[in-house]
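Researcher: Here's my situation. A collaborator sent me these components and asked whether they could plausibly form a single complex. I don't have experimental data yet, so a predicted model of the whole assembly would be a useful starting point for our discussion.
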Amino acid sequence: MTDVTLLEVKGLSRIYGMGDVKVKALNNVSFDIKRGDFAAIMGKSGSGKSTLLHQLGLLDSPTSGEIIFAGKNILEVSESRKARFRLSKFGYVFQEYALLPELGALENVYLPAMALGRKKEEYIKAGTEVLEQVGLGMRLYHRPREMSGGEQQRVAIARALINRPDLLFADEPTANLDSGSSKQVLELFQELNRETGLTILMVTHEPDDIKYVNKVIWLKDGELAEQGT
Amino acid sequence: MFNNAKLSLFLAFKSMMKGNKSTLLLIIFIMSLIFVNLVFIGSIFLGVTEATNKQVINSLYSNIVIEPKKDEKYISDVYSLEQKITGVPGIVGVSSQYVTGATLSYKDKHGTWTLRSINPDDEMKVTTNHNYLIAGEYLSRLDENEILLGKEISGGYGGDLDYSSLGAKVGDTIDVLFDNGIKKSYKVKGIFDANFIQTNTMAYISQKEMESVIGLDDKASQILVKTIDNGNEDVYIKQFLEMGIKEKIDPWTVYSGMVKNITNSFDMIAMMITAIGLFVAVITIFIIVYTSTISKRKQIGILRAVGIEESIIIQSYIFQALFIVITGIFIGLIIIFFAIKPWFIEHPLKFPIGLASLMILPEKVSMNAISLIIAALAAGFIPSWMAVRKSIIDTIWGD
C-alpha cells in the first residue's frame, strides 16, 4: 500500500427507473482507494455492493458523481475509451467465472492481450506464464466445462491479470467455490497484492474474508456506512 | 484496425467451430441453393431471350431490314442498292424479298400465311432456314412452280398448329391464291423447321417465280442485311444513311415486338425472383445471427466487460455471415458450372421460340454474388449491433 490515491469516488449515485418508481441503488457514495490497497466492499445482500463495483469498473453508468482514476474522471471519456480502460487498466473477476465456453483456458486468458494488440508469441507466452502463476500450467488447453469451479475462477483471475492492470475488481469471487478453493483464491489475491503491488477491490459478504484485506468499505442500503483499515 | 479484424476473425472462427457443424453445413447449403436460384432464374430467362433474339435474326429479319420509303409499296432499283450495301465493310449478305399474304390450300384445308420470295443463294447468306430442312430440298434460284413450306403450314411432319395446317407433304401440289387474285398450283419442294413458330408459319418461293406472278422486276418489299457481328446494327445503319440511302432502315429489334414484350416480362420476373431470393437470404442470415446473439448474449457481455470493443464483436458476427454466404456462393458456383450448366447444354429447354439453354454471364453472376454478400453484411450487422447496444450488466446478468 502507498499514499498515492489510485481511485477516488465522489458523490456516486445510481438510480434505477422502473416507470414512476425510482430505486436508489447507490446514494452519494464517496471514498478513495490507494495504490496497493486490497480493499473489500461489504454489506448485506441488496446493499449496493455489486452495483458499486459495476460503476467503478465502467460496466454501468452512474446517475451522478465522479470516478477519478489516476487523476482523471473516467466517466467523461467516450464509450470506446471506457472499453480501452477496461481492457488495459482494469481486471475483472466475476462470481460466475464468466469464461467463454468455446475457448480453452489459454485462449480465454490471452484474449484481452490479443485485443490490446500484443504479438502472438508474446500473448501466448504471457498467457502461459499467468496460468502457471495461478497454478494451472497443466490445464492450458482445457475448456471451462472440463475444469472445476475453483480452476475456472483461477482462469478468470489469470485473464484479469494478463494485461497487468492497475486495479483488479472482484465481485464475490468465492461465492460459488468450496472453502478450499475459496481459500486458494483469496491467498492468491493476497500474494498478488503483496508481491506485485496490485490494487484489488473485492466485493464480499463473508466476514472471514476481512483477514485478507487492508481496507473495508461498508455499505448499507446503498449508502456508505463505514470505512476503515 | 488489422488487429481488430484478426481478433474478430478469431472469435468468429471459434464460434463456428464450437457450434453445431451439421447446422452450419445445412445453412451453407441453403445459401448455395439461394445463390443457384438467383443465377439460374436470371440465366434461364437470359437464355430464352437470347434464343429468341437469335431466332429473329437467323430466321426472320437478319440484322438490318430495309423497307420502302414512306408511301411507296416497293423498293426500286434493288440490284444497284444491293451492290452499294454489299460494298460496306462488315456486311456479309444481302437478300431482297417480296413479302405478301397468300391463301394456301390443299385438299379441303386452307389458310392465309405470309409468303416470301427469295433468291436462295442470297437468302442463305442472311438467314439459316436452309439448315433446318426436315423433308425435301431447299429452293433453287430458277425454281418455278415449287414452294418451300414452314412446318406449321405443312402439318405433314407434325407441328403445334394441327388445326390450321394443310397436312401437305413433299411432292404434294398445293394451290396458292395471291393478293392480286392470281391463283397458281405449286409442288411442295421442301419443309423446314426453324424451331420458331413465326418462321414456321411462312412459305417461300423463288424471286423469279414471284416476279412472274406479280409482274415486277428489280423491286422488293424488303431487303435483309446480314452484318458480321450482332449488336452494332446502328453503326451500319448510320453508314447506309451517310451513303444516301433514302429507304426506311431499321435494326431487327424494331421488328421483334413480341420478343421485346417477352424480354421485358422476363426481366421483370427475373428481377422479382432475384429480390425475393435476396430477401430470403437476408432473413435467413438475420435469423441465424440473431439466434446466435441471443444464445451467446452472456458471452457478448463478457467480451465487452473485459474491454473488447463493440465493433470487434459486430465484425465477428459479420465475418460469420460472410463465411456462410461466401462458402455458399462457392458451392453454388460448383453446382452451377459442374452440374446445372452441363445438364442444360445436353438437355436444352424446348420453347415455341426454339431451344433455350442457360446463358450465364460472368457480370450477372458477379452481381448476384455481390448482392448476396451485401445482404449478408446487412443481415450480419443489424442483429449483432442490436446485441451490443444493450447494457453490459443486462447482457451478462439480465433475464
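Model: Some features of this prediction you could bring to your collaborator: Residues 21-61 of chain B form the longest helix (41 residues). The interface with chain A takes residues 3, 6-7, 10, 14-15, 17-18, 298-299, 302-310, 312, 391-393, 396 of chain B (CB under 8 Å).
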